[in-house]
Write a structure and sequence with these properties.
604 residues; alpha/beta; 4-stranded antiparallel β-sheet; 20 helices; 10 strands; 9% strand; elongated; disordered C terminus
């Protein structure tokens, strides 16, 4: 559903979130409105009675009765409003939390291709700012104030009409003038807030480089501190300049409010005083008129101001709702999905003239690439940087869909299968794998449903057993020391072994490895490829490698060049073909032959 800045569609959308997350807000809101609206009236009516009794020197018991009644009603309404408002406020806090949690879940399941879009990232940050800035709570409170203001106006207007209708006209004129000024200032503030959000995003980005450990080494080796600090200072200067303009707007709003309040008070005293002198109004009548005028003005100002505030907060809430309503393709397909083949032992993946360009780019990363992968094949994908190797893996796992051609599983387009079920076919160890601030065990078992036997088997196959025995708590040791002094900071090779164990532990039919040995020493590399050969009896293995010595045992080698499939075949076939593969292989072999006799001291 498309939502603009208009009040009704936004409030309707918000009501849907309230019904979904905190439906108890509705009755609590109604009770809070009633008790809040009635609070001024005991004083308005009984203060008039008491002042007239004082003026007539009435008996003390009669005065005491009305005084006690006034205090009792005021206290009852105050306690009632406090009781319901407290419960109401707690529900608002929970609603903020539930909406933020829902946004996190939305992000976790958002299509990967959308997450890499600048437009999506900006919408995500704006939605986060809308929630973290308490805009939803303020919007609901503004609805409460509007309802309370309208109810108070209905009740107090009848009182004032019996006193002086001219006063009502003056109050309405002053309130309308103040509201017009307030609305204009709110619109300016919203525009400034959007500008601040964009600057704040850039500030956070550069600050992250300075305070995040993963960038610390690169920053120091390149002496990049002055450059990054200067960048941050530039954006922070813009931020506080814009923030200063917001404070100026707030100051103007307060000044206008003070002037119009003074005009209101002067009008009240002059008009009511004149009525007392010419129409013999009592002191009690003056008190009720003054109290009624104040209540009318407050209620009208609150109602009009609430409408303005509701519209203003809808501008912010709109960003949250637009993000939550962003349509996905993978998790919410337009067509009914199909179940996976009942048996995967005879399955065949077919790339049929597959082309692909990344969103926002016209350059073809892949250009009509066609090949097959059969179950239990060991497939190596090779080629120079930018040839499209990782893109093939991304398309096979449906992080993206082809922009041309099709990928078929047993003759069926993979887009027809249920996305979650299809994604569950693959274990992927990507080149830019990540370690999480969890225990080693949790990092390995991430997303896996295997048993302890599967875990220990994976640990043993990648050569982590001896290392785990040295850690303070074995596999239950926390990675990095940020949250646990007993945690460990692992090397690149050790973290790659953990990532490999994660891929093996998922125990899926297809294992995909992107540069699986880039951080390993020769012995570790040999162990990994022995493991690959062992796993190929039960799984299909696809791996990307720049080290062509590892491709010799593959059942099929795909050679990519400039987004096209240059060659495919076994190592023996491709070497006999005297094509691109042989050229790359012999270039690497020649390099190692040339450097074989170099002493280690020459490399230091």
């Amino acid at each position: 559903m498309s939502v603009s800045e208009k009040i009704f569609p936004n409030c309707k959308a918000l009501a849907g979130y309230i019904k979904r997350f905190q439906p108890a807000i509705f009755p609590l809101l109604a009770a809070d409105v009633i008790f809040l609206s009635l609070q001024p009236f005991p004083y308005m009516f009984f203060s008039r009675k008491l002042l007239n009794l004082f003026a007539l020197k009435s008996p003390f018991p009669e005065v005491a009765f009305y005084a006690a009644l006034l205090v009792s009603l005021t206290l009852l309404l105050s306690w009632g409003e406090e009781f319901f408002h407290t419960k109401f406020s707690r529900r608002l806090e929970k609603l903020d939390y539930e909406m933020f949690k829902s946004m996190s879940q939305k992000t976790a399941y958002l299509d990967y291709s959308m997450l890499n879009s600048d437009d999506t990232r900006e919408k995500m940050q704006n939605a986060s700012k809308a929630i973290n800035g308490k805009n939803v709570s303020t919007l609901i409170l503004s609805v409460r104030d509007l309802a309370s203001g309208i109810l108070s106006l209905v009740l107090v207007t009848g009182v004032l009409l019996t006193m002086d209708w001219i006063l009502i006209i003056i109050i309405i004129a002053l309130v309308c003038l103040q509201s017009v000024l307030h609305v204009k200032l709110q619109k300016l503030r919203y525009d400034l807030d959007l500008s601040l959000w964009r600057i704040d995003r850039k500030m956070d980005w550069f600050l992250k480089f300075c305070i995040t450990g993963e960038y610390a080494r690169e920053i120091r080796l390149n002496q990049a501190q002055p450059f990054l600090i200067k960048k941050h200072e530039r954006y922070s200067g813009q931020y506080y300049e814009e923030y200063g303009r917001i404070e100026e707007l707030a100051s103007k709003d307060r000044k206008a409010h003070a002037v119009l309040s003074a005009v209101h008070d002067l009008s009240l005293y002059l008009l009511t005083g004149w009525r007392i002198l010419t129409k013999n109004l009592t002191v009690g009548d003056f008190s009720m008129a003054a109290s009624g005028a104040a209540t009318f003005r407050s209620a009208l100002l609150g109602a009009i101001g609430s409408i303005s505030e509701i519209r203003n907060r809808c501008r912010y809430f709109m960003h949250y709702h637009l993000y939550m309503e962003m349509p996905g393709v993978f998790y919410r397909p337009n067509e009914p999905t199909l179940p996976l083949p009942s048996s995967l032992h005879e399955c065949v993946f077919t790339f049929e003239k597959v082309s692909f360009s990344y969103p926002g780019s016209s350059r073809k990363v892949l250009d009509e690439v066609s090949f097959e992968i059969r179950f239990r094949d060991v497939v190596a994908i090779v080629g120079e940087n930018g040839a499209g190797k990782t893109t093939i893996v991304s398309l096979l796992c449906r992080l993206y869909d082809p922009t041309g051609g099709r990928i078929l599983l047993n003759g069926t387009d993979i887009r027809r299968f249920d996305y979650n079920a299809y994604a569950g076919l693959f274990s992927v160890v990507s080149q830019d794998y990540k370690m999480f601030t969890l225990t080693v065990r949790e990092n390995i078992m991430l997303g896996a449903t295997g048993t302890e036997t599967h875990l220990q088997n994976a640990v043993q196959k990648v050569g982590l057993t001896g290392l785990a025995e040295k850690w303070p708590h074995g596999l239950d040791t926390m990675l990095i020391k940020e949250f646990d002094p007993d945690g460990v900071d692992v090397s690149g090779g050790e973290s790659q072994k953990i990532a490999l164990a994660r891929g093996i532990c998922r125990n899926t039919p297809f294992l995909i490895l992107d540069e699986p040995t880039s951080a390993l020493d020769p012995l570790g590399e040999r162990q990994v490829y022995d493991t690959i050969m062992e796993l190929s009896d039960k799984r299909t293995v696809v791996f990307i490698s720049h080290r062509l010595s590892s491709t010799q045992f593959a059942d099929k080698i795909l050679v990519l060049e400039n987004g096209r499939l240059a060659e495919s075949g076994t190592h023996t076939e491709l070497m006999a073909h005297n094509g691109r593969y042989r050229e790359l292989f012999e270039a690497q072999a020649e390099y190692y032959r040339d450097n074989k006799s170099c002493p280690e001291t020459d490399l230091n």
